Amino acid sequence: MRYVDPVFAGPTDPTVVRDGDRRLMYYTSRRANVPGLPGHSWVFGTPIGMAESPDGVTWSYAGDAVIDIPGEDLTFWAPEVVVHDGLGHMFLTVIPGIHTDWGHDGAIVHLTSTDLRTWGDPRPLRLATDRVIDACVLRLPDGTWRLWYNEETSGKNTYYADSPDLFTWTDHGRAIADQPGEGPNVFHWRDRYWMITDVWQGLAVYHSPDALTWTRQPGTILAADPRGHHADVVIDGGRAFVYYFTPTGDRTSEIRRAELVLADTGTLTTR
């Protein structure tokens, strides 16, 4: 599978959810093919693109998500979407302004939707600092929810917070801090919790019995050129598929899919 955004040619940070018989994919739509944008401004001012698929393999462009957040020149990154009791919840990185360099304040904002296209009622989360990006949300066995995110002032460590209802969150600080990374994604599969993070040399893999204590497996996955970045994992029929983006040029990118495999040694790999 290879998906390229037909408008800006720079899809990154995918997240995939089911909507009835179809799958919906949301992604950061970097403005990779827009000429004359100075510095890093092509990764700011970005909308959230959408694609749809009947099978998770063949994808068709479905326009942009409609994000109702007050303000001008807003940057939207790294959407995380979950559907619970018929309501869609998006946890979106929002950065004020369009910048030519990195290192600006960012918030994770919770929005809701009844149709999975139009998102409103924005509520910024109160987390560890004012420089946070890349949310991931998972429901735990007791019915509560846990959110992992990248806290940038700590050297890009992964932090976490808990919620009873997806609206009220309590921050608990660091989850992992063995090396810088971003885009944490957590899923439960084969009797373990797994976390993957983008460490820019492929994806680091961690496992845990309780989603609290994490053990790093040696090396990285999807490390060969072109490398995998900022991924989402979908469990489908007992199989696990990782959706990730990879560069195709100086600015352009595409989204790909690989299947995860658990070796007899307990090591997670791809095929």
Automatic annotation (TrEMBL):
It comes from the Bacteria. Keywords: Glycosidase, Hydrolase. The keyword Hydrolase applies. The keyword Hydrolase applies. InterPro entries: Glyco_hydro_43, Glyco_hydro_beta-prop_sf. SUPFAM superfamilies: Arabinanase/levansucrase/invertase. Belongs to the glycosyl hydrolase 43 family. This is Family 43 glycosylhydrolase.
